[in-house]
## 1
Amino acid sequence: MNRAKSILLRRRYPDLVFWVSFLVLNAFLFLPLYLLNVHESSLFPLEPAMVHTPGDVLISLLIWRENPDPFRVNLELPILIAPWVNVGWIRRGLFRWLVMILYFIALCYYLYESVMISLYRFDPVFYNHYFLIKDGLGFLLDNLNLSVGLYLAAGASAVALLLLVIWAVRVLVDWQIPNDLSRVSRMALAALAISLTLSALAYNSVLADPRMVVSSLAFKIEQNISASLAMYQDIANFDDREIRETYDYSAHKLIRKPNIYLLFIESYGSVLYKRPDWREAYLKILDRAEKTLTKHNFHFASALSESPTWGGGSWLAYTSALFGIRIDNHPQYLSLFDRYQLETPRYPDLGAYLRSQGYYYLWVTSLSVELKDSMWEKYIRFYGVDRWLRYRDLNYQGQHYGWGPAPADQYVLSYARDEALKEVDQPILLFYITQNSHYPWDPLPEVVDDWRTLATDTGAEDMLPREGLDHQEVRQNYLHSIEYEIDMLVRFMLDHADEDAIFVLVGDHQPPRVSRRADSYDTPVHIVSRDPAFIAGLEQYGLRRGHLDVPDEKPQLRHEGLYSLLARALVERYGTAPHTPPEYLPAGAALPDWAKGETAE
């Protein structure tokens, strides 16, 4: 539309043009959250499953609803525009530019909030996300393996949307619009502004919640800044003296020392129980695994555990489990990471305790994109490992898959186990987080009879993710990735069935894109051993013995409680003083507020 036609249209239909521009700009603020959750939400405000009474209808339409639809209203936009069209002297100053600048600030903030809530279920906190973006954005883009064409298409779409927004803003605050608007439109806008002001007085900071129908940028930013300052102060004042006393396990000696495989399964979430099609298929996968393990004299117990993170941030999940404290944002992690580089004695985590009992601590990372050697040294000091196997150490020349890209998990685990036992005459603690169940869950390797053959398929090209998959294909790929991991881990356990070993399998967080806000932070935990007495002892902590599935969807554990649970269970079964084990701390060690807050909804 050229400028002359645009001006003509505004003069003939000023009310129509004004209200269309207003509604478009208002909807644009809420559109990102809807689009990022489009496959798990409804375009329309009312979801039949959530509406039961007339009161439910009114609440959903006017106050609050879970569904992230774009049919909401921003508080500030009508409050700014109402004076523009009703008060003549305001138009003489820079008010028009103020409206334009504030709108673009609002658009950027709502986009930022939408990404954080949709991908990680984190409430927007500047202090947290500054470090997360600074440290992780480049790594994320490097490992997504997206084509140049996709980036160009995304850039072109962004430019087109930006031009549309600029046009709508210019129309909304056009100098001529206030003179042409009808009295009815002026009064309607003034009434809307007054009603929203009353809403702000009634609800105050609650309007920062993205589920509210009336949404306020001012309250969002105020809440964000307050949370950022509080997080900064709490982290700066962190004192670990009480934690060190809590995890002083020096008096708890082990006589028998089975090998321990602490294996985190990427994106292994309780959402598998919460979709009918997934639940049916998932229970069949678990049933097949149960029968195979039972046939080979394995025993097992399972539960759900509340992770400190959702949809990403695996390092928060497994570090919480290893350290026995809740670490639910990146600045907290960084503060600990920097603190425990040189400090002695080192932090008394699970690895430190088992090393004090004679264990050899092996950590494995398989991503083909590696860090600098100086950074690896920092990670080694932080986690206190004896050896860290990296991609370059795996002697792998086979196909690479999906995220990273990375080798087949079956090869990595088996190679690491054989490499460790070949070099040391000690019990081992082996830590690994799977890569083949990482988003985008495509493509996937196969479970093979001899894992060594996976490293020799040098003739084929790397298996990179396919683009343009519809949502149902993505869902199926996720389920297949979990099936692969469970089948692969069962094969891994069978290959080493002669060992005196304990296998601890833990989900790190819910899968992104295919789960939603209401699916909780819970992930499955399975503990497997050929020692029936050890598995029987886990029942007292809420794990269900003899099953890989769980009877209901209530979490019995928390990730930060796994350290004390494992230490206590080991001492009860294999310790010199089994009747005086360390205390089980379901929520981890006593901490300041920053590390023991409730999970965000």
## 2
Amino acid sequence: MATVIQVCSDVLCQFYKSQRKAVKNSNPQGFRLQRGRSHRLYSTRLWPVASIADIDSDSRPTWYYDSAAQKISFSAADGGDASLNTYCTPGGSSGVLGGASATDISIQGIESWYGDTGFNFNNCGSYEAVDCLAFGARDNGIAGDMSTGVEIRCESAANGNDGSNAHHQTTTLEDTTRNAVFLKIDAWCHDNYDDGDSLHERCQGTYLGGLFEYNGNRGIATAFGAHVTVRSAYSRKNGQNSRGVGITGEGFGVIGVTDGGEGGNGTQMECYDCISESDNYGFAAHSFGNIVRAFNCKTIDALIAAYSASEGDVYLQDCRDSGSATVKLEALGGTITVNNGVAVAW
């Protein structure tokens, strides 16, 4: 037990001196966007519990803060002596702080560790981030509310909300002609508390490639009136970490009813040549007005359903499945339409 001067977050991270000791990649062959690393994370998240007794009974690495005594107790992720490791709490400054609509920001090769938000581009005119890392932020790794941006080969990992997140909210219908537009190329979004990447109200997004894995909820979430195209992205093992609550776990998921006051007309995701492996749901439309269109996409070993429509609609063109618990799941009036083409004769 150690005395703590201040705990500013509900996240405590155990920081390893080796920097490559935290969580191993589950696939020894690896994926190209894992950059040849043997481990996905530089440090291990410790989960808050309600008492010291819970530390002993919980299978996860955990911590408990006694505010009256100003003392914190925690376990080591490897089960060893917790006092031999270094610990930190995310919070404080962001790697970039936007806020000016006349400002255009471009960054390359910048790393932000354990900040409040990794890179805060909210309310900028535009931004570009190339080969950047947002790791262990208390909130989002990359935030782009009311902005427009390009993200190229960025990694967002172990952040307290989403890996990358943007909203474009308005109640002034005259403002609906301007939307937040995003281009995301070869992102690696993993081990975030909620979604790997999520765009919301009237955002328009294009994803080219990308690996979205081990996030607490979804790989890519398109929500509440966003409209996106996804090409050749890979989503895997989302919705299965130690978060434990509020999880649906879609690999490619459209969620949330559009706010009519913003003038939006539904929420749409179009996927081309995308793969979902071992997500809870592969491709899903889970609210009224949601539409997923998947062309030549694949699902592998979905834990609940490969293709799911609950209130929303899913359209499949030449899609396939291997080993999923359920291939098609329709609920609450949702529909799945399948159109498999035949080979064109020479």
## 3
Amino acid sequence: MPPDTNPFDVRAAVQELSAAAWPERKKRMHPIHRRFIQSARRHPFRTAMADAQTDALPFHRALAAAIFIGRRLKPIWADDRHVGILLPPSVPGASVNFAALLAGKIPVNLNYTLSPDGLASCIRQTGLRRVITSQAFLDRLNLGLQCDKVEISEVVNAPRLTEKLAAALAAWFLPARLVERSLGAARPSRMDDDATVIFSSGSTGDPKGVPLTHYNIGSNIEQLAQMFALDGDARFLGVLPFFHSFGFTGTMCLPAALGFGVAFHANPLEARVIGDLVQRFNVTFILATPTFIQIYTRGCAQEQFGGVNTVLVGAEKLPDRIADAFEKKFGLRPMEAYGCTECSPAVSVNTLDFRAAGFRQVGGKRGSIGHPLPGMSARIIDPDSGTPLPPNEPGLLLLKGPNVMNGYLGLPDKTAEVLKDGWYVTGDIARVDEDGFIVITDRLSRFSKIGGEMVPHIKVEDLLHEFIESHEQSFAVTGVPDEKKGERLVVLHTLEDADIEPCLEKLASAETPNLWKPRADDFIKVDSLPYLGTGKLNLAEIRAIAGRGKSERRDEVKE
């Protein structure tokens, strides 16, 4: 490059070289379950996993449990390629997933927060014939399944001494290839084989199947490992569901592959139980969503988080009001990360600063999603022309790297829409500052085009929350069709009448473009905002509620 090239362009070139060089690592990488075996044999007595109902399992016992379950399930799923799993984040849930991987199967963790139609669609798309689950769990969720159910309690019931001994000996001594063969794997796993199918959350539409390979997920694990200097004492909190890619990769596969412990809990909303779990198992690293850490700020005691040194938040934008409240209570500021299912999922993270005598390298910036992970290249383009944009110019975010999927399951047209010339089109509007930090300004789907101008929903939400001085999510903004201006903003809120009136008065007098000001009669009171099981706002349901509210008001006018 010319000697007068600016740092922004140099950084972009280095990122592209990093993405191009990463495939050289593939020949030295191992499938996820083989890394689990390696961890068990290097650290046999280190805690691998625990939950509120299960004592801490050391790695050698965790591997033996997965082998035992795999042998019990061998005749049941012998002819299946995809294996359905419908269990919460827990020791049994993780054990069944690793049993499936060791047996050469592709685990499909089903989203138990979907509608019956959405769940049936996932089963149909992956051709599932049976699902490993718990009837008690299904009853609690009032779920029905349109395929055979295999009760996990019956699978693990009354293990014989010979079975336990065989599983333990295999965990200690049997070569990895023979472990796989003993569980029914037809051939050794390869890095390009699918490791799982994760269904997109459906926050803006129907869920799409995203096959992720061992190379995709293994690369994401290595990328995250390079960003955080974790040691053998690291303990993760596992409250993210395995049907969420953040949970599958970050709190199930990553600890197992790197030899760290993880404490699972089925319900991420139970702050009292989670606070106790964090303290009891000395959790040091929390992966969560803004919604979840907001709950922990209210419901957990300061001393319970005394051993935590890192809180990484993703899945949706981290508002300052939530981060400030968490930091004020626990003395630790959450760091925002960014990811998407199609990228396995981590894309970029904020980290701690690097400091040395006479030197400081900034690792994070408030309001940003950090730097791209090693091996990832990010590009900002004009959404209309496709032209790359200079620093601090917002545009469409494109990504390239080893963790990017190969395509959607059975949807070549949808794949062609988002994968272009090796780049993944995220659908997010972002900018990159002069130091290389990425700032998400909004989702392309979270804009309304009003009178020819693009109005960002998230910024309107932030403005409303400033007016009420609250760190809790009380507003959700969406757009509905409007005959005169194309679209109109509608706001769902959870405030009482006495609280919403002052907010509307502040909005009316605010020095904000009029297009950003929803009308007073476009504020709709709801008992609670709709969320997905991943902790994200359910944007599709929010639009539906707003649309119904608009229709009801129109009917009232007619009457």
## 4
Amino acid sequence: MATNETALREQIKRDFGFDLPIGSGSASSRDDPLVILASDPRDVALTEMLLLRCFGEVFEKLWRVRARVAMEGRWRHVEQVKVETKRLTSTEIVTEETNHYFDVSASIAGKDAGARDLRQAFMPYYVDPATGILFPYEIGWMHFDKAVENEAAHPGLGLTVSYTALNIKASVYVYSRNIEPFPEMFDLDFVSAEFDAAASDLLGFNSDGRSADDRTLAVSGGGTSYLWQAFEIGAHQSVLALTTARRNYVKLRMTWLAEPLIDEVASEFIDAVFDLASWAPPLRGQD
């Protein structure tokens, strides 16, 4: 029989497939923090993010981390994570801020204050081994789900990274099709041909899909050029977007239940992903 100390861990493993290093506690107050058993600050940050993702799915809310705060005094072993949430009702959008508390004693034992403060700087991320592009576990309101490396089984098809949020799914594809030479910079003619093929595939795979707008050349807030087009697939809104970075295509497909708030979330996510891809530091041999 599960004890109170193991019940949450077993429930999360059963419902979400994550076996997290957690112990007792509710995370609801600094006097009852949820114990994180990991000793590496990176594992602590990852565990917190995965826990919050589970909480968000259970309560059906959009959420994002606003701050991680190392508490003082007799709560020195506690980390407070401030989370902003948005809940959609039939008449309004309800925005709230909640605090979650984690006992991180295992990660600060025997360490000085500087090392203790450094733990707040860790943001979990996945790195594409081929291009060095970083995919943070949180981009705006969207959260990393999984990465699938396709290259070994399907040369030229690179990597697929999935993100999710409430009623939203996104897939990011990083691939080269083994094209040599691949343009160093964004080339509209080069990108247009690949975009048109991807748009044709999208409509071919979705019998209830239709174009909702013309193909458009856009520029992100960070200055990254890309093509995008909106589609409607049944009751869902969908966007296809494509740019190039690090001698690869970076394609994004995003689908959500049509709603103005989520339209904004999608737009911000597309810009952020393409800027991250463009800002990726060069790998050795690709300087």
